[in-house]
Structures are given as structure tokens and as C-alpha cells.
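Task card 7
Instruction: Convert sequence to C-alpha cells.
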Amino acid sequence: MPIEIFRNRPTRALVSLGILANNFAIVRSRIGRDVKIMGVVKANAYGHGILEVSRALLSMGAHSLGVALLEEGIYLRENGITAPILVLGAINADQVAQFLQHDIAITSSSVDKSRLISATAVAMGKTARVHLKIDTGMERIGVHWYNADTFIDTTLALPGIAVDGVFSHLAKADGDRAFTLEQIARFRAIVERMDRAGRLPPLVHLANSEGVIHYPSSHFNLVRPGIMLYGYATQKDFGERRLRPVMSLLTKVAFFKVVPEGAGISYNHTARTDRQTRVVTLPIGYGDGYNRLLSNRGEVIIRGIRHKVAGNVCMDQTMIDIGPDGTAYNGDDVLLFGEHDGQSVALESLCAAIDTIPYEVLCMIADRVPRIYV
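Output:
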């Protein structure tokens, strides 16, 4: 029995499909009318729930979905998603048949990969949907832009392959304008050569979230927003609309106690009280994805007041010092990040405290935390 069905658990992630629609509308406002949107839903839709988010994005007008793993694509297919799905990552030889069985588009990142895809497709009597990956400066997967012609020509000539797209990925679009423009120029040169030869596939894509926001020349005819759909980017205000966090992580006070001066709190007593104070215990810990690095650093909101984490975050529980005069009752809602009842705890502030990024924190929210869609 999946633990997610226990929706009355005090610790829960509220996922606002209305805010997701707001953020999707911002993406749409930044691109041309004829530019398609591939909603990136890898890593369980950045922790938000891949199936529900995928259904919502498609209902909002997304053309296709981008995932990282074949298994993610199969899960979507088995749950009724019929829209185009592209696995953006590298593939293994023994996976190709499953791509074909489930009509999931494959990223080919080398001549050898293309030949493998072709041989499998021919043997199965099927046609593989393929997107060609060009490396313009990420050094992750793909053929370098400066020697991609053989890769492109060979793949296009192979039987059993329909090349649906060509793409690359921006490495530094959140801060290095000069290098990003260089990547766009490298990719555009590939696209123009294919176009002159009459060999340009239907879909040409480069822009990630920061590309959508800051680099119109990277949009081509499809964009791949990821983190901005979920409410995070270097720019948040767009006229009358603002990117907002789709997920809010909440729990409830589970225990209240008065703690004397000089008492150590949690494992290894990394916090000690300097006066008699009041401490509450929350039923959430690093087993839920609330990072242990937030020990003595994290902040939460209880009854409209901001309080700090006291001591080490445990696997399943976390203590909060609410001060000698603090007020809290068992069952009170506690906001760990996001927005709730007019209050907010910026995820970025937690990330700054532990030197990470919103992507990581969102993806770490465990499956045992129920997602509640509102």
C-alpha cells in the first residue's frame, strides 16, 4: 500500500495547481505564439508529483513532456499519458526496445547510439523517434558542435529512425551572458546548416528556464522550462504576474515542553538552552527530506511567528525553540517553506543557509510525504 495514500499525515506537501498554471502562463508570455512548450517533469516533477503535474501541464497546453529516465516515461504511459515524451538523458543498450514498445522518444548522443537504435528498430519492425543531442559547451552528453556533421548525416541516413528533433543545453544561462550567447551561436550554426540542406527536423530546442526568461534567441520552436514552472528563477516579476512556489511544505506541532536553562537538545546536544524556554517537536526530519544541514539553521513559522530549529534534525523529528514566552499548541500548523495562510518562508533562504539550490531541496522531499493537490 503506497504511503502517499495516508493523506491525513500531519507532514504534507501542498502542491498548488493554480500556481503552476500561473507560472505556465508566464512561460507562455515570454515566447512566440508558435513556440511549443515541453514541460520538464523529471525527478518526480522536481518533487511535485510526476503524474499529477504532467496531466496539469498538458491540460494547460504543453506540447510534450521531458523526463530523465526511461522508467519515468513508462510510468506516464502506463497511467494514460499519450502526449510526446522525450527522455533527455543518455540511454543504455538494453533499454532501446522498451523505448519503442512505449513510443517514447530517445536522445541519441553519438553515432554508435544511433546505430544501436536503428538496429533495434529494424529488428522489431518499428520506427524509433529520435532527438539529436549536440554538445555546445555543457560537456555532459552529445556530440561536440564542431564535429557534429558526421553524427547528423549518419543518423538521418539510418533505417528505422525518424529524427523528430535536434537540441542542446545551456550551461550558464543564470549568470554568464557571454558564454550563453556563444552556445546559442554554436547551436544556431548547426541548425542553419541542417536547414540549408533541407534536413532540419520538426523540433529545434535549446532554452531552459533561464533561456526562456533572458534569451529570446534561444527559443527556436520549442522551449524546455523546468524550475521556473515550479516557482524559481533569477527573475520572478513579470508585469502583473510573479513566479510563485508551487510546493509548500507543512507539518503540525506534535509535542510541547518547557525546557530548563542549560539543557542540551537533540543528538549530541549541538544546542543548549541559555534560559528556561519552550520547545516544540515536529514530526518531520531528514527521512522526509528536511535536510540535516538545517540543524540549528532552519527557520519555520508557527502562529505567524518565525522560530529557529534547535539542535540536530533527526530522521523523523525536529525540535523548535519558540522562546520563553512563545505560544504553540499540539496540532498547530508549521510552515517549513513556501506559502501558507498569508505567511511565507522562502526556500531560497534555506538553500543559502546550507549552500545548495532549490532543485535539490525539492527533489529530496521523500515519497513518504503525501502530496496534497489544491
